[in-house]
Design goal:
By secondary structure, this protein is an alpha/beta fold. It is built from 7 helices and 12 strands. Bound molecules: uracil (URA). Uracil (URA) binds near residues 212 and 219.
Length: about 230
């Protein structure tokens, strides 16, 4: 069962129960192929990233708690269904995570969105530093969707998650959403915070010496915001 979920059998992920890979349909593969292509123009890169983010947000919301709700349909019949049990809050890791905010707003219009600014060193080797946090006052009572399209080493994510925990968010109410993850990044994050969850569109092979994801798609922020 587990090997069905992990496309790279040589890099198993120990905390697999807490990691969800979006169903690898041909549609997902086709959209990701556009993003991975170095010749894709920025307009298309943004358009197809946004489509994938909406798919990712729907998948993410499906992992949050629900409770029973009974409604009456126009036929007069009763229907026993479900409703979302808790309030949610998106928290984007600036800058690339901000690209995911619109997709969350589109499917969850009243959702609060906080921000965390973390600076990585250019070589990716030093420990990332936290510079700024702005989140709703009641964040500790919310389900938190942490947003960053690229889970590479997991260094920035660890700083962001530590900050959320310091603000009173229970670890098991944090769901980290990414477009691309590496086995190393998922393992680093879930080893440190074993009761949170990670959900990604793709699990890539590895990091190179410059800490870029391979095969990857290059620098996501630069391609999305046009700063390359
Ligand atoms: N961040 C990116 O934008 N790309 C990578 O490959 C790794 C981290």
């Amino acid at each position: 069962m587990e090997s069905d979920l992990v496309p790279f059998a040589h890099t198993p992920i120990p905390h697999l129960k807490q990691f969800t890979l979006v169903n690898q349909t041909p549609q997902i593969k086709a959209l990701m192929t556009i993003l991975r292509n170095k010749d894709t123009p920025r307009r298309d890169f943004v358009f197809y990233s946004d489509r994938l983010f909406r798919i990712l947000m729907e998948e993410g919301l499906a992992h949050l708690p629900f409770s029973e709700e009974i409604v009456e349909t126009p036929t007069g019949a009763k229907y026993t269904g479900l409703k979302f049990e808790s309030k949610i809050c998106g928290v984007s890791i600036i800058r690339a995570g901000e690209s995911m905010e619109n997709a969350l707003r589109q499917i969850c219009p009243h959702c609060r969105i906080g921000k965390i600014l973390i600076q990585r060193s250019e070589d990716g080797l030093a420990i990332p530093k936290l510079f700024y946090t702005k989140v709703p006052k009641d964040i500790s009572t919310r389900q938190v969707l942490l947003l960053d399209p690229m889970l590479a080493t997991g260094g920035s994510a660890i700083v962001a998650i530590e900050e959320l925990i310091k603000l009173g968010v229970p670890e098991n109410r944090i769901l980290f959403l990414n477009l691309l993850a590496t086995p190393e990044g998922v393992d680093t994050v879930l080893s440190r915070f074993p009761s949170m969850r990670v959900c990604s569109i793709c699990l890539d092979e590895r990091l190179n010496e410059q800490k870029y994801i391979i095969p990857g798609l290059g620098d996501f922020g630069d391609r999305y915001f046009g700063t390359d």
